[in-house]
């Protein structure tokens, strides 16, 4: 009898698959995970074939249910019920998103046309949107943005807004990198920090930083529903790889629809930062800073999302310009204190942490140095910084000039590096080309 029991055990082990969990996700290092996340779908996906778990009613208290050829214990059934609740929440959220998209009335404006000498949109994506709206932009700026991305393996669209009168060498480099280029002429008044702008046909004027969110919403409408879109600052961003292929199992659909990226904790906490705290305070009042001030700053400069997520996010950002939207009621409060160059950052952090985005979208928040975008500016050892060490000591910047590289905390090359320009007089003294491997050929 003992021998028979041993033989039965051996057969069961031989038939089992200990490497694979119930959700079908492999434990082998480096393999792309394809199992559906509990926040999006109940089910599994193996070798491209979806296998639905068919759990019956009840199932708790140790009962076992038959599903997909296997007996499931009580704990598994509890997990199935939780996944079903999450599925219902996802469906409700998706219905709210569809309703919002139907309500958005923002046709592509007639005055916005791509330059005939540039590339045309490829609706399939992926695509990177950016506003390079500074007449000071030069060839090196275009190479550091577009050139490094191409060198890192990105072969999708760039869609770039430029100002009239931009440097010809700059424009030529955008053309060489096959960018879709729009010349945008904002209508502005004032100067320096008091400068406010609008676009043709707009009665309201605001920080020029906000113009790009109108562009993002319009441009996104040119792309297919399943296209992935990256919104990016231009001047202070460069690439060491392709963000659309980096550890996508952590963030790409169906895991999330919108991906945002934090700055470095603890140096950048909203209420401890005079700038970020001020933007929230001025735009949302005392209650606003109490509600979201304890969170780590998420940077509005770079985000990634699906087409519909980008349209919804950009729309919600521009809606924050209306104080009646921000305060949720008719109000005599004006935008006087809210208008500033950094107001988009205040709006972004409010939407991320107040739950406004979560009403419509599954949002993935990456800590600094953990995802496809590494925002490093908070490491600058200014007088307000709580932690003061150089990038090399942090091991964020590694190697020696001209072969220096930026890294995530797991040691990977950071596909996208943001705000490294803060260190051009310290860790990167002498410029990008003199220090960085990715920029060695750009002069």
Based on the model shown, name its key terms:
single chain; 443 residues; alpha/beta; Rossmann fold; 3-stranded mixed beta sheet; 30% helix
What does this protein look like?
The chain has about 450 residues and is an alpha/beta fold. The protein contains 11 helices and 18 strands. Helix 3 packs parallel to helix 4, helix 5 (about 210-220) runs antiparallel to helix 7 (about 305-320) and helix 6 runs parallel beside helix 9. The longest helix has 30 residues, at about 75-105. The radius of gyration is 25 Å and the shape is globular. It starts with a helix and ends in an 8-residue tail after the last helix.
């Amino acid at each position: 009898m003992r021998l028979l029991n041993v033989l039965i055990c051996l057969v069961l082990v031989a038939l089992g698959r200990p490497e694979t969990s119930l959700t079908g996700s492999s434990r082998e290092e480096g393999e792309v995970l394809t199992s559906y996340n509990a926040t999006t779908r109940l089910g599994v996906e193996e070798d491209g074939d979806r296998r639905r778990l068919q759990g019956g009613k009840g199932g708790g208290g140790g009962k076992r249910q038959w599903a997909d050829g296997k007996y499931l214990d009580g704990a598994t059934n509890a997990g199935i019920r939780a996944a079903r609740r999450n599925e219902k929440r996802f469906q409700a959220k998706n219905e709210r998103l569809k309703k919002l998209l139907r309500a958005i009335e923002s046709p592509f404006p007639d005055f916005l046309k791509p330059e005939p000498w540039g590339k045309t949109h490829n609706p399939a994506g992926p695509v990177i949107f950016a506003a390079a709206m500074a007449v000071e932009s030069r060839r090196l700026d275009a190479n550091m943005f577009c050139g490094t991305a191409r060198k890192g393996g990105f072969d999708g669209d760039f869609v770039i807004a430029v100002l009239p009168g931009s440097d010809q060498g700059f424009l030529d480099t955008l053309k060489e990198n096959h960018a879709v280029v729009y010349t945008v002429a904002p209508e502005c008044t004032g100067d320096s920090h008091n400068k406010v702008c609008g676009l043709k046909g707009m009665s309201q004027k605001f920080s020029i930083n906000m113009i790009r969110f109108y562009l993002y919403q319009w441009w996104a409408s040119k792309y297919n529903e399943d296209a992935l879109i990256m919104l990016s600052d231009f001047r202070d961003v460069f690439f060491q790889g392709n963000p659309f292929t980096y550890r996508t199992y952590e963030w790409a659909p169906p895991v999330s629809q919108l991906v945002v990226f934090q700055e470095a904790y603890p140096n950048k906490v909203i209420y401890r930062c005079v700038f970020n705290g001020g933007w929230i305070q001025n735009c949302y009042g005392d209650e606003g800073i109490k509600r979201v001030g304890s969170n780590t700053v998420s940077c509005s400069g770079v985000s990634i999302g699906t087409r519909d997520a980008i349209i919804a996010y950009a729309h919600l950002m521009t809606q924050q310009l209306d104080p009646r939207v921000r305060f949720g009621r008719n109000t005599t409060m004006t935008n006087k204190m809210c208008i500033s160059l950094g107001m988009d950052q205040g709006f972004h952090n409010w939407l991320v942490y107040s739950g406004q985005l979560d009403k419509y979208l599954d949002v993935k928040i990456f800590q600094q140095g953990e995802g496809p975008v590494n925002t490093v500016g908070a490491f600058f050892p200014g007088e307000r910084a709580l932690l003061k060490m150089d990038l090399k000591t942090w091991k964020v910047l590694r190697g020696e000039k001209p072969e220096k590289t930026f890294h995530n905390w797991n040691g990977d090359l950071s596909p996208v590096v943001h705000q490294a320009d803060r260190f051009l007089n310290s860790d990167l003294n002498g410029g990008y080309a003199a220090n960085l491997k990715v920029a060695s050929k750009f002069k």
